[in-house]
Amino acid sequence: MKLTFNSKFLFIFLAIFVIEVLIGKCLHDAFIRPFGGDVLVIILIYAFFRIFLKTNNKKLALGILIFSFIIEFLQKVNYVTWLGLEHNKLMSIVLGTSFSYYDLLAYFVGYLICLLFKD
């Protein structure tokens, strides 16, 4: 792993961030917002790390997938309440408050897309 600055991934991160905000603000459907947004969030996190790190992309993508699965399973045990953040709307949105097997599938799809990125 090496510290670096990658403008390509900065552009990807910013583009996906804008798309995520637009999805969150403008879409209230049953597929793109819940599933597509979760696919994109994995790619968003991956792109953020790739801005600053030159590393094995497969290991990074796997680490992000494992992290996202842990967060999803923590949602099943209502960890936002444990942290005392249930009344903080922003943190509840960022951390998530409901478990779904479809979210795990979306994260896996995002992981597979991350594997397509090259250095």
Order of helices and strands: EHHEHHHH
Q: What is the topology, as strand order, of the major beta sheet? A: 1-2
Distance between the termini: 13 Å
- Separate helix tally: 6
Ranges with pLDDT <50 over ≥5 residues?
none
What fraction of residues sit in β-strands? under 5%
Please state the average pLDDT score: 93
Overall geometry comes to globular
Largest sheet: 2 strands, antiparallel
Number of domains: 1
How many beta-strand segments?
A: 2
Fraction of residues in helix: over 70%
* Rg, nearest Å: 15 Å
| Helix-strand category | mainly alpha
Structural account:
The protein has 119 residues and is mostly helical. Helix content is 72%, strand content 3%. It has one domain. The chain has helices spanning 7-26, 32-52, 57-76, 79-82, 89-95, 101-114, and strands spanning 2-3, 53-54. It is globular, with a radius of gyration of 15 Å. The model has no long low-confidence stretch (mean pLDDT 93).
Question: What's the layout of helices and strands?
Answer:
Blueprint: E1 2-3, H1 7-26, H2 32-52, E2 53-54, H3 57-76, H4 79-82, H5 89-95, H6 101-114
Antiparallel strand pairs: 1-2
Helix pairs in contact: 1-2, 2-3, 2-6, 3-6
Organism: Pedobacter psychrodurus
Pfam family, one: DUF2809
Keywords: Membrane, Transmembrane, Transmembrane helix
